[in-house]
Amino acid sequence: MSRIQARATAANRERYQHDEVAGYLTDPYHRRRLELAITVLAKHLRPGRTVVDLGANEGQACSALAGRGFRPIACDIVPDARRAARDRGLLAVGLDAGAALPFRTASLDGILAGEIIEHLYDPASLLRECGRVLRPGGVVVITTPNLATAQDRLRFLLGRSPRQVDPFHEYLSLHIRPFTYELLATGLRKAGLTPKRPLSNYVVWRTRRGEIRSAWAARRWPTLGGSLIVAAVR
């Protein structure tokens, strides 16, 4: 692992192992993102299939996967997170998503990679590993913040930086690899995966008085939405 990659991994471990993560999915924005991702998995896979959740934290998403009939495996780099997942009755595995995945070739039915690829120094390595460990017909569902949201397209035209590349933001500074749908789809194809049409949770417009969120607009124009939700088949 390079020194820069190691520093990125350490920064993410430090930021995302504290109590604030526990309430992450209480926000309707992220709840809808996760619900859409799991629904996409359910459309591609039958109940009983094995699905790993990369960056599972304490297993919240895995509990939702189990509720849909899947056999989830909670994967996280932080030992305390894995212990909490096991306390939920989940199988938990330690891994670094920026390194080789500890699974046999063609051994998994599905992968959920929620809000993790933007944190990786080498996202191409993760996509190749997903292609390696998935069985033929298996599916990976990736969610990641959208670099080209409706508001950020306007911001760029006005000479302002998109929100996702703010190096001084409290947590966005750890999003070192922002994606548009086309860029992510290109990476998936290079990894031997076939991307499907994207989905999104909300088109968001931020004002001084708060946020305006539209699920309808996200269904109509997903590439303008806040989160990209992209399935790709092996």
UniProtKB/TrEMBL annotation:
GO BP terms: methylation
In this chain the Methyltransferase type domain maps to 52-142
The Gene Ontology terms for molecular function here are:
methyltransferase activity
Query: Which InterPro entries does the UniProt entry name for this protein?
Result: Methyltransf_11
List where this protein forms a coiled coil: none
The alphabetical list of record keywords is: Methyltransferase, Transferase
- Mind telling me what this protein is named? Class I SAM-dependent methyltransferase
* Source lineage: Bacteria, Bacillati, Actinomycetota, Actinomycetes, Pseudonocardiales
